[in-house]
Design a protein that fits this description.
Number of helices: 17
Low-confidence stretches: none
Shape: globular
Order of helices and strands: HHHHHHHHHHHHHHHHH
């Protein structure tokens, strides 16, 4: 019951209460791997790094993919690049589904070594596992982050042929001309990426991309476009890519107060 309580409290953002629940667990019983991982995350959040590090070391004795991902991320954010690489090397000894190791490694590279390194790793992974969705998605998002919109569209098109039922790749491939036109605007590129990264808002993203395309074609006043985008944000307050787009455009137009709000 304490384990369940800790998990629920953590999900509610009640970090210290979740830690208290974990610390009330019987000391003579070993923590399960899932509780160790939860505790490590919580200790890291509150800056109790000695506790977090000890749990990381314990989890590596019988690592899971989730544990390895957390440990690599935690160590990288602590500036321990070598330690992160050592943690990721544990994946070599795991019996994983095809392509999962490459996807985990490339995702880590994208965050901590730069998108150029990640792109190369995604390409290598796709050569071995052409129907792996996470590898395909990661490559397209990384290419967009590098401003390589045409190549991203081409890779989405290839990915759709390899995985015909993938809705994210289909959304880009079926709107390739739109994506090419609007995606070249550096402010809109993350919105294109959200077709993959924020699936719950995929339809909204497509609608906004079409509105931006129409605004660009008609030379609509930027203030009018921005006003319409703010209405979209009001309707979809959890859509991060759209919120960030509006904030960046507001700053560009000198509307600092609106950007902060």
């Amino acid at each position: 019951q304490l384990e369940q309580a800790a998990t629920m409290l953590a999900a509610l953002g009640r970090t210290q209460e979740a830690i208290d629940a974990i610390e009330r667990l019987p000391s003579d019983q070993p923590l399960t791997q899932s509780v160790q991982l939860l505790a490590a995350r919580l200790y890291a959040q509150v800056g109790r790094h000695e506790k977090a590090t000890a749990l990381c070391d314990a989890m590596l004795k019988q690592p899971t993919v989730a544990a390895v991902q957390f440990i690599a991320t935690y160590r990288a954010e602590q500036g321990d690049r070598e330690g992160a690489i050592q943690a990721l090397a544990m994946l070599d000894d795991m019996d994983l589904p095809a392509g999962q190791r490459q996807a985990v490694l490339a995702s880590h590279l994208s965050r901590y070594e730069g998108t150029a390194a990640a792109i190369e790793h995604y390409r290598q992974g796709i050569q071995q596992h052409p129907s792996h969705a996470a590898l395909r998605h990661g490559l397209v998002v990384s290419l967009l982050a590098q401003g390589q919109v045409d190549e991203a569209v081409e890779q989405a098109d290839q990915g759709r042929r390899a995985i015909p039922d993938d809705p994210a790749l289909a959304a880009i491939a079926e709107s390739k001309d739109l994506v090419r036109r609007v995606g070249r605007n550096v402010y809109a590129t993350p919105l294109v990426a959200s077709l993959i990264t924020e699936p719950d808002y995929r339809q909204v993203a497509l609608e906004v991309l079409k509105e931006l395309d129409a605004a660009m074609t008609s030379n609509e006043p930027p203030t009018t476009t921005l006003r319409r985008l703010r209405q979209r944000v009001d309707q979809n307050p959890q859509f991060l890519a759209l919120t960030n787009l509006v904030a960046r455009l507001s700053l560009r137009m000198g509307q600092t107060d609106e950007a902060v709000s």
